[in-house]
Write a structure and sequence with these properties.
Layout: H1 2-11, E1 27-32, E2 40-45, H2 63-68, H3 83-107
Antiparallel strand pairs: 1-2
């Protein structure tokens, strides 16, 4: 689609800064400026019946929004601590230290 658009714009002497496109499939599309590749615009086309997490057509490109829209990778998440496991290991280690101390005292 966009290769044809580039060819068409190259043939037309009146260069336009605006174009329209209707996306036929859901997915993520990334556009970047030729003059500055660091400037990007992400477009997420939702499937039929899909719903955005928030109302509105445009959102800032923050890591939070990128992740919520399913465009970027989720960073390693911190999991809630498993207190049962932590307490069990702590109690076991205290008992082991007590047993070892008891054995040392009984031998001495």
């Amino acid at each position: 689609v966009f290769r044809g658009l580039a060819e068409e714009m190259g043939l037309n002497p009146n260069t336009s800064w605006l174009f329209l496109n209707r996306f036929g499939q859901s997915g993520v599309h990334v556009f970047q400026l030729n003059s500055n590749p660091n400037k990007k615009m992400y477009i997420r086309v939702m499937p039929v019946g899909g719903q955005c997490y928030e109302e509105g057509p445009f959102f800032p490109t923050t890591p939070r929004n990128i992740i919520r829209m399913g465009i970027g990778r989720t960073p390693d998440l911190w999991l809630k601590p498993d207190w049962l496991l932590i307490c069990s290991l702590l109690i076991t280690s205290v008992i082991m230290v007590g047993v070892c101390a008891g054995l040392l005292v009984s031998k001495g």
